[in-house]
Amino acid sequence: MSDAERFHREQIEYWNSAGGERWVTQQAHTDAMLVPITERAIAHAGVAKGERVIDIGCGCGATTMALADRVGREGHVTGLDVSAPMLAAARRRGSGRSNITWLEGDAAAVPLPEAAADLLFSRFGVMFFGDPVRAFAHLRRSLRPGGRLAFVCWRDFDENKWMKVPLTAAYQHVPKMPKLAPEEPGPFAFADAARIAAILDGSGFATARIVPFDLQLDIADGGGLDRACRLAVEIGPASRALRDYPEAKPAVVATLQDKLRPYLRGDTVPLAAAVWLVSATAPAD
Ligand SMILES: C[S@@+](CC[C@H](N)C(=O)[O-])C[C@H]1O[C@@H](n2cnc3c(N)ncnc32)[C@H](O)[C@@H]1O
Q1: Architecture of domain 3-157+180-217+274-281
Q2: Are 224 and 267 in contact, with CB atoms under 8 Å apart?
Q3: Among 55, 66, 75, 260, which one is most buried in terms of CB atoms within 10 A?
Q4: Nearest to 273 by CA among 176, 190, 189, 158
């Protein structure tokens, strides 16, 4: 098995076990915290009434439902994800909506109607393919000629203080995780804009635009310092680092009280976040 195949399989397994279960548990907080990114990403995608959209790696369905509101009853959104637990949560939340179909499958390989979609959208769901060129080429074939791709992904780890501060605190108490190779799938696999451009070019997309968006994320959800500290160990890389060391959580939370106090503003704890807003089109042949 090639490295790419192994990476891909490991991701599918991860999102169907610890990774997926943690996202389901933390879904309400994650969705609330990510609202500014969701709104910006959907605006950037220019979603219109009546469009047919595929939400790639839709997870627990927040963006799928927001897209369904935009396309209206005459439009349609397919929420596609490989994680059974996350898609089950999405189905529960989106039940009764006639303009959504939930599809469990690997976005890199699942059969999709050819040349049928107007828009491929994703909020942080496209950085986990072992062979991204193949995966994006497969997804592109589901777009009509002239159809759009629009997704949001994380920039460099160091620019994302909302993840870096909690992980640095965790590393005072637990061993460091192995460093990922630059090509390895993961949350920061698309941090390099040149790599994104090369992947999109290699998979047959045209006119790629990759623009930075900087913002502050309130990791406390308006709930003050204690809540920020508790939530910070449940999501993002810090939660991954603590996966095998749950007994270390109270110590990490205590360390975070000191590390996060300087960021406290009223009941919010805003920390820097940095993403790419990426768009491209499927060439009209
Ligand atoms: C970081 S989560 C983001 C979830 C969701 N888009 C959100 O913003 O809440 C990444 C998502 O990508 C999904 N994913 C990873 N690899 C995938 C694949 N090969 N095919 C479909 N979905 C995949 C995961 O199951 C997970 O739901």
Answers
A1: 3-Layer(aba) Sandwich (3.40)
A2: yes
A3: 55
A4: 158
Please give the distance, rounded to the nearest whole angstrom, from the Cα atom of residue 81 to the centre of ligand 1.
6
Average pLDDT of every residue of the chain: 95
Helices H / strands E in the chain, number of each: 11, 7
Measure the CA–CA gap between 76 and 50, rounded to whole angstroms.
Answer: 7
| CA-nearest residue, atom 27 of ligand 1 | 59
**Residues of the chain with pLDDT > 90: what percent?**
92
Pocket test for ligand 1, best of 13, 112, 124 (most atoms within 8 A of CB): 124
- 106: its two tokens: 């690997």
What are the distances in angstroms from CA 57 to CA 63, 79, 137, 229?
10, 8, 16, 28
pLDDT digits (tens, 9 = 90+) for 218-277: 999 999 999 999 999 998 899 999 999 999 999 999 999 999 999 999 999 999 999 999
Pairing between β-strand 206-218 and β-strand 143-154 as defined by DSSP bridges: unpaired
- Nearest residue (by CA) to ligand 1, atom 25, is 83
Q: CA–CA distance from 184 to each of 31, 148, 187 (Å)? A: 26, 26, 10
DSSP string, 76-128: EEEEEES-HHHHHHHHHHHTT-TTEEEEES-TTTS---TT-EEEEEEES-SS-
Atom of ligand 1 nearest to the CA of 8: 19
Please give the distance, rounded to the nearest whole angstrom, from the Cα atom of residue 82 to the centre of ligand 1.
7
Angle between helices 161-170 and 224-232 (to 10 degrees): 70
Domain residues of the chain, as ranges? 3-157+180-217+274-281
pLDDT, tens digit (0-9, with 9 covering 90-100), for 47-82: 999 999 999 999 999 999 999 999 999 999 999 999
